[in-house]
Design goal:
Elements lengths: L1 H16 L5 H24 L15 H27 L1
Helix pairs in contact: 1-2, 1-3, 2-3
Length: about 90
């Protein structure tokens, strides 16, 4: 239900961002990160998922960086462009 709420917010945001130049891309990036956070903070703790050990202090966990970028480009952008395409039909 929460995911549907965020999908709806993304659709509303796209409808208003369509008037701005480059608004869809910015909104899609934010939406992809929100989907990642909901999955990471809500869905995974409620499942049987057990995370691995955290990265040592002072280092960059490139696995997490890759996950964030993957959600921006492979979740947020396709959803944003699909809703824009559906809104124009």
């Amino acid at each position: 239900m929460l995911i549907l709420f965020f999908l709806y917010l993304g659709y509303i945001g796209l409808a208003t961002a369509e008037k701005q130049r480059g608004g869809e891309g910015r909104l899609a990036a934010i939406f992809g990160l929100v989907v990642f956070l909901v999955m990471r903070l809500v869905v995974l703790p409620l499942s049987a998922f057990r995370p691995g050990p955290p990265a040592p202090a002072g280092t960059i966990d490139w696995g997490q960086v890759n996950l964030w970028l993957a959600h921006v480009f492979f979740v947020g952008l396709p959803i944003a462009f699909a809703t824009r395409w559906a809104a124009r039909r």
